[in-house]
Write a structure and sequence with these properties.
CATH superfamily of the largest domain: Alkaline Phosphatase, subunit A
Strand order of the largest sheet: 8-7-6-5-9-1-10-11-2-12
Organism: Hymenobacter crusticola
Mean pLDDT: 94
Largest sheet: 10 strands, mixed
CATH architecture of the largest domain: 3-Layer(aba) Sandwich
Structural class: alpha/beta
Low-confidence stretches: 1-29
Keywords: Hydrolase, Signal
Number of strands: 20
GO molecular function: arylsulfatase activity
Shape: globular
Number of domains: 2
Radius of gyration: 22 Å
Protein name: Arylsulfatase
Number of helices: 12
Family: Belongs to the sulfatase family.
Helix content: 25-40%
CATH class of the largest domain: Alpha Beta
Amino acid sequence: MMYAFLRSLLGGCSLALLCFAAQAQRSTAKQPSRPNIILINMDDMGYGDIEPYGMTSIPTPNFNLVAKQGMRFTHFNAGQPICTASRAALLTGCYPNRVGMQGVLLPQDHRALNPQEATMALLLKKAGYKTAMLGKWHLGNQAPYLPLHYGFDSFFGLPYSNDIWPIDRDGFSVVQDPKDLRSTFPILTLLQGDTPVDTVKNIIDQGKLTTTYTEKAVAYIKANKKAPFFLYLAHAMPHVPLAVSDKFKGKSELGLFGDVIMELDWSLGEIMKTLEQEKLADNTILIVTSDNGPWLTFGDHAGSAGGFREGKQNTFEGGTRVPCIIRWPGVVEAGGISSELLTNIDLLPTLLAVTGAPQPTNKIDGLNFLPVLTGQTRKGPREVFYYYFDGNCLEAIRYKHWKLVLPHKAGSYALNVHGKNGVPSQKTEVNVPPALYDLAHDPSEAYDVQTLYPEIVQQIQKLAEQARQDLGDDLTKTQGKNVRPAARY
């Protein structure tokens, strides 16, 4: 019917022109104002952990459905391959080291995201959105450095990762060895706002987390359906220790890890079903992604990097490249695939462009991908991405389809047999030599081509020096000129 109308309007023009006109109509006239936003951030889900990105032996019908109804990004990178840093990037639109949030926070740390940084929640709240967070925070361990102080109206969840507790690998006994860092950790606490309301005492309690978060997400959607809302759901899984509810225990062909992925798939399905039932699906942007790649040292309790090199805590592609699917019916192309270089840093400015929310006053690093989402262009605005890790070490730079790896030390998963049944293996520290990889022809970063393309190496080296001057670099002992401090307490 739409094509018939367009044909009569355009007087029998070519099919290509008709398709262009239809695309233009889809990307402008149908774009709803002030859509709801649901951002689901998995913990340690690797690129290859769900069927739309190549997983086998685990059925993921709801991940498949959201990919069918939305756009799947194949070159999406987290800001750093580690929990705290990645989440800082997501919520501030900045390289984590710009805001002093590199690495991972532990209970004894007295560092937090500076409250002067404008978060996604704060900016959307200023635009009239109700805001809520469920799940893992990991940007500050105590009030006033918890979500309510960064723009969220409500929060229920954990202050940090689900493995930061004093419980041993069996999921029940307390660690007794004083040389084991876990023996220094407090009991894992569930928070409602700033207030502790429960504890996670054992692996059975861990198995309740996915269901609890899902039920609270569903309730929130139903209670806030009349006003625009932003819901940030940061699941604890599939980060170790893996735990699953009884309804999914033993359901997959891939052991406990598969059961956990199936429950996360169920969770996504419950949220999508609720949006349909409440007639909110067409006016809700649903984003599904992960904070970093899989923690491969845990073997069968870890996921898949999808053929990319290495995993979490490493700046090869397996550490930062993760799934990202964005669904926005009538605006984002259903079943679309984009190979543009997108990062979780870019989600904040993109959502600000969607909603008309105010811009941060501080410098950010994210770029606006709204024209890509609406189909106005297939070319994304990002050509460069800096891979920082291990404090503030600039370890690699991507420029278009090229990736220059700079010499550094790294923990490698490749030299040891991975762990089993929740018991990890050890990583081996290696000296990573300089190399140039062509990710278009060599996504696994196996073939160094720097001798063939010295001009590309020289060009990217200039970008590296720009990054060092701007953000600093521990490897070259360079102080960045435009970094901002974290909060200290």
